[in-house]
Amino acid sequence: MATLDVAAFADDDLIKWLYPHRARYPDDFRLGFLRQQAKRLRTPGWRLFVVETEPGDAGFSGAVELVGYAAWERHGSSAAARAWQGDTLFNRLERALLQAQDSHASLFGLNPAGSPPRFQRFGVLMHENFTPVPERWHLQHLAVAPAHQRRGVGGLLIEWGLGVAQDECVPVALEASPVGEGLYRKKGFRAYGRMVLDGEDWGFSMLWEPRGWEGRWGTREEPGPGAEKEGQMSRQRDGR
């Protein structure tokens, strides 16, 4: 998946900003994606879905290929959210090891492709973007191999989360670059706020709302009544 990320985001402006030295340190650039995936796989609430080629697909090469994947995270404390947030001792130990490795790498500058201060600022922005929407699914990452873009792969990966969110009566959040904004709007997402880092506009934070609850969450600057209704929806969903 890390190799796919490197190809998919080679020209992405936000990735260029986060990894200003990626051309000089290509192996470390790939390692950054690899470590991110490892942490997601071991963290409660995360689900990763992939799309692979198979015989009968147009242009099938004769071997199965990974052509896209999506990383989804379930936020919240309702029963529906907790059902996705199970943990194990093995995963806790793996996370502790990954955290120790991250601290060591940060201390000694062992991932020179990226900019730790920029990662920190981007992380704060992602956290603050949807503070008024605690119960949600969040599409944290979507990558499609360049040769398979505009073939419906991204839409297929998005549909899984929209279906689950509709069943659970919660919205779906994401951060969209200008390149991906069009796809998300076609899927029913709307602008929720702007992504501004270091005085530059990097696109929109976007929100998709379940049928029957459109407009309930307002915007980041002006939260709608959906934020107040979340507890009610969760109680209804949990049967309380």
Topology diagram in text:
Layout: H1 2-8, H2 13-18, H3 26-41, E1 46-52, E2 66-75, H4 79-82, H5 89-108, H6 116-129, E3 136-144, H7 153-168, E4 172-176, H8 178-186, E5 190-197, E6 200-208, H9 226-238
Parallel strand pairs: 3-4
Antiparallel strand pairs: 1-2, 2-3, 4-6, 5-6
Keywords:
single chain, 6 strands, alpha+beta, 9 helices, 240 residues, six-stranded mixed β-sheet
Give a verbal description of the structure:
- With 240 residues, the protein is of the alpha+beta class.
- Helices cover 44% and strands 20% of the residues.
- It has a six-stranded mixed beta sheet, with helices on both faces.
- β5 and β6 (200-208) form a beta hairpin.
- α1 (2-8) crosses α3.
- The longest helix is centred in the middle third of the chain and has 20 residues, at 89-108.
Q: What is the first-to-last residue Cα distance? A: 41 Å
Query: How would a textbook summarize the main sheet?
Result: 6 strands, mixed
Helix content: 40-55%
- H and E order: HHHEEHHHEHEHEEH
Number of helices: 9
Structural class: alpha+beta
How would you describe the shape?
globular
- Rg result: 19 Å
Give unreliable regions as ranges. Answer: 231-237
Going across the biggest sheet, name each strand in turn.
Answer: 1-2-3-4-6-5
Number of strands: 6
Strand coverage percent: 15-25%
- Residue-averaged pLDDT, rounded? 87
